[in-house]
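Hi R.,

Quick one: here's the Aminoglycoside phosphotransferase family protein sequence you asked about.
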Amino acid sequence: MTEIGRILGSGKEAEVFEYGALALKLYRRAASKASSFREAANLSILERLALPAPKVHAVGEFDGRWGVLMDRAPSSCFADQFVSTAGSAPLEDMAQLHRRLHEKPGDGLPSLMARLSARIRRAEGLDAASRKRLLLELDSLPDGDRVCHGDFHPWNIHGSGQGFMIVDWLDACCGNPLADVCRTYVLLHHAMPDRAMGYVEAYASVTGAEVGGILAWLPPIAAARLTEGVANENDELLRLAGAS
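And here's the predicted structure, written out as tokens:
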């Protein structure tokens, strides 16, 4: 039996290890079984769309933790280029990759609108009036039927050029691409605030989307993130949601 090798990466939800020539993503114990099957199901759906995502090889229990065995991503991380390269080139490269996902139908993936609604309903820190307003705003926005990654940022992109691989598909869903771009804006707004709006503008430039149409999703997207246990972002998220 193959032994679990060195760690390749670590995040809030999971750790990734070498496993022979493959990668083993082990979720942390709280919800590891459900999360493993959820991400594997998402990746199985994406496999038929020929997107730059890892192929699933197995789901199972490894040393008492549930995980997904999948193709190993290239060792280089796009975030290194994104951080170190000035100008619009890395923003445009990332936007073009995001556009590739959004060209594909999201049939079979969970509904983005349903997920956002459920998270807004249980988000802490919202008063009743803000919660009602945010749900109404969400209902007024146009639904979609495209692949949305749900956590698209430079640290989830590996490789370069034609060899890109996008990882971490746990929150993949079917919905409006502009909502997915707005989610990226919220993530970058916290991690790299000087690049967040530049990314929105780059995506708008390569797709013909309207910047205003992307930012219209900001209040519900920010409010939904309140459920993700990122306490150091909560004040900022409440402000972006218009609830502070």
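The radius of gyration is 18 Å.

Cheers,
M.
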